[in-house]
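G.,

No rush on this.
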Amino acid sequence: MIPVAKPFVGEEELEEVRKVFQSGWLGMGAWVKQFEDQLKNFIGTKYVIATNTGTSAIHLALVSCGIKSGDEVIVPSLTFAATIQAIVATGADVVFCDVQPDTLNIDPKDIKKRITSKTKAIVPVHYRGYPCDMEEIEKIAEENGLRIIEDAAHAFGSKYRGKKIGSFGDITCFSFDPIKIITCGEGGAIITVDENVAKLVEKGRILGISRDTWSRYKHERSWFYDVETAGFRYHMSNINAAIGIVQLKKFDEFLKRRLAIVRKYDENLKDIKCITLLKTDYESMAPFCYIIRAEKRDDLMAYLKENGVDTGIHYIPNHLQSYFSKYKVSLSVTEKIWNEILTLPLYYGLEDEQVLMICDRIKHFYS
């Protein structure tokens, strides 16, 4: 069975983790600091705070912006539940927004319709790694005094108008879970140019404790400290950072292979009448997943599985999930699109012959 996604880790990552074991300091420490510094250089930004997951990064970013009960946060329904749960965890109300049919990114026109006096933030999701229309979203946010927390879990390495996602704007959150372009095993990061937010995030990720971060970076504990804010146990460990340090060195290689795969998919699927390809820009996009719109999606999905190809759905819209059903809303594009979207395998180790086989199976299904 060809999987939808698969991490690519090996001896180099093991060797770096072995060094962590030998140091005797497994928690947040020098490797985390090194990973944060490397992320700063890679993205080109001022403040980077590593976290244990991408979900906790979004939650902590929202909290650090003062999002609380009674506030409203606008977010696309077509995203992983993690984005929504992070908002719910602040006590704020979720305001689901529709997406554009060609990119499946949040629709700025629909954002405008959903702003109220209670709206405090917008959480755009760079779906598939294709950047949202940030110029328009930033304009809307500025006109209405809103914060922007970008969910860039899919978009590590992507660019918007020549600038890397995270190198501009308000606050950006990344994920480094097992199947992202680079992985830490589990991990995330908050990128911001706001010094006040950075300070709150830095303390908030380690239980609101002051002065403890720099001690831990030097593999020491500060036994005399003060708990200054509300906080969480959201910090990254040296073990996860060690994996990320090695993975970051391989990013260019990973991206090159992913781009070759998605271009091969495009070339072989573009003439199938029952398939619609999504809008792409491979000069600026670091593709996290490859998604098509397919007629008879469920039947195709079952056929491919019978023929050795696993596929996925990114995602069942959150406003249709039972836990979020209280946020009653009608999203015409999202509700149509999600019955058509199908995620095909995409990962570094996927071979050209396998890509061609998958495309042949799809052609055979529709013929």
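When you get to it, here's the other one too:
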Amino acid sequence: IIFIDKNYNLLYNFSNINYINIYLLVSFILTAFNTSHLQGTTYRKNKMPSYKILFISKFNFIMLMYSLIYNLNFNNLFFNNLFLLYLPYYLEFSEFKGNRKLNLYNPLIKFAAMIFKSFGYYEIINNNNIIDNNKQYLLAIYPHGIIPVGSIGCFVLPICKNIKNTIPILLGNNIHTGVASFCFYIPLLRDLFLFVGAIDCSKPIIEKFIKNNYSIALFVGGAEEAKFSGYGNTNIIVKSRKGFLKLALENNLTIVPIYTFGNNNIYKSYDKDFYNIFYYFKRITGIWFPRGKIILTKNNFVSVIGKEINVNNNDILELQTKYINNLNEVFEKYKHLDSSIKDKYLLIN
């Protein structure tokens, strides 16, 4: 690809097409609206668009990113070659295949761990002695925050000294974490999630891995929960989230509630909109656009694993009640570990 580009100046000619940014942006938006492939499974009736549609969508987006950088006069041979080397990797849909596995000894994972250490200290508490390789689990994690830094640091980076003894299922590569589709469109963020073994959280993709005997971890509140991010905020979205319960019932997965204290404490969100711009951003991408400010302070991130919930002979509402009670029990028992919420209650929306 580099050789062809050098001889025919493909990137240069492409980036100099009049209004190319507008064409790419409109194409991306129309594809996202018509297929809803970046939104939750509810919007696309449990179906995935064809790979051709997804390929076009991703290609539009990455070329839009390139052309915007090009217009900043950042075009040079080194950057072009780097982009061309990255392009096949970006377009190969590892988020659907699950062929990237968590490896705590990967040099890039260790580098990410160094960055995450600057945010604070990480610990896992699993006093119920569960989560081994003999069951299939659905780990239902709260809260999401703007980015669940605490949960990532605790579970998928070599930061917690007790990770091997506390949650051995991680090291057996028998689990995948579902992540919002649009996260795999954003360079660097995509790569971080792939390096920790994440997959697209669309229901057809999740069910494919469940049928192959994998456990699944989900941030049930989703990206919408980011609007509650803020120091000492205890709001979570549960009552409208029944899909994960149905998934567990249909596939006989053992549900485990997990609460990570400190996830909300790194960013203060403002739930303001201007002319519905952010509403339409969410309609297109399926994620909440961050607006707020970073809280520059170190935090203690503690992920507490609650009691497991067996799904046999339960209906959705009964299962939801059990989950809420177990999650609330975790919160009340361990909230003293986070000074910002030690006198607060879990606010369940």
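Residues 117 and 309 are 32 Å apart (CA to CA). The chain is about 40% helix and 15% strand.

Enjoy the weekend,
O.
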